[in-house]
Write a structure and sequence with these properties.
78 residues; mainly alpha; two-stranded antiparallel ribbon; 2 helices
Length: 78
């Protein structure tokens, strides 16, 4: 969208929305160093999520015996 442009109304989850571009900045290259920690964290979260899903398919899950935090820490550290 260009600055000052207004999009056509649209419905999202039962709400009608209209968007107006108030200001705009051109895309700029970002150095790897600036986003390295965010990339690492995203990959860790994805790996933990995949691990939890895989383990959940193969095990009996009972409420209250282990926290999600313990599972995530186990996946990230090992």
């Amino acid at each position: 969208m260009q600055e000052g442009e207004v999009c056509s109304p649209y419905e999202q989850e039962g709400t009608y929305c209209v968007i107006k571009c108030l200001s705009r900045e051109e895309n700029q290259a970002v150095s790897y160093e600036d986003v390295e920690s965010r990339i690492e964290r995203t990959l860790q979260v994805e790996e933990a999520s995949e691990y939890i899903s895989k383990m959940g398919e193969d095990m009996e899950i009972r409420e209250g015996e282990i926290s999600a935090e313990e599972v995530i820490l186990g996946a990230v550290s090992g």
